[in-house]
Amino acid sequence: MIIAIDGPAASGKGTLSRRLARHFGLRHLDTGLTYRAVAAALLANGLPLGDEAIAVEIAHNLDLAQMDKSVLASHEIGEAASRIAVLGGLRKELVDLQRRFAEKPPGAVLDGRDIGTVVCPDATVKLFVTASAQARARRRTDEMIAKGQEANYVSVLEDLKRRDERDSQRTVAPMKQAEDAVLLDTTEMDIETAFQAAVDIVSRA
Length: 205
Ligand code: DC
Prior knowledge:
By secondary structure, the protein is of the alpha/beta class. The protein is built from ten helices and five strands. It has helices at about 15-25, 30-45, 50-60, 70, 75-85, 90-105, 115-120, 135-145, 155-170, 190-205; strands at about 1-5, 25-30, 110, 125-130, 180-185. It has a five-stranded parallel β-sheet with strand order 2-3-1-4-5, with helices on both faces. Helix 2 packs across helix 3 (about 50-60) and helix 2 (about 30-45) packs across helix 5. The longest helix is centred in the C-terminal third of the chain and has 17 residues, at about 155-170. The radius of gyration is 16 Å and the shape is globular. It starts with a strand and ends with a helix. Bound molecules: 2'-deoxycytidine-5'-monophosphate. 2'-deoxycytidine-5'-monophosphate binds near residues 9, 31, 32 and 163.
């Protein structure tokens, strides 16, 4: 069983994916972390984000078990990840890795931007999780404030819009809802309601 979850930044797809995996006894991969891990390695070594050969080599040697979400969560790494995500050769390398993860029993929940369209086109069930840019910016701002970080709603909103634009307009594997994906718009939902809605969609499938 493979559950494919796509959607824009800060849509809540990460939390939903983790909870769905726990609920259905599946493994979980946040594929955004694979792009973030490659970006972080390039940044840490002062390497240019456009160097595809090096990015591919880093991706080839990536160990999923070593990816640390807390280290990779920064805004700078997220931006860099979105920039290198346009490189076709890098995507191919990471998609291979993600597919190998998905195919191991008992199955998995994968979340990202191109899971239903490219990584797992034959997934058992596909969700496209979204929310208005304003709702996502509000949640992201509250999250940052709760962590004691400085956050400005207007600049968070602008960043999210820029990232959505880049992720959905790139030529290779742009973020888009797969034709057979179920749309889950969480603008008016809290996390519990969204989780129940997601469980219902998966159970029906
Ligand atoms: O979901 P995230 O914020 O961790 O993702 C960081 C960037 O990685 C995102 O802006 C675009 C890229 N990405 C991608 O292109 N394809 C995926 N399946 C996951 C992430």
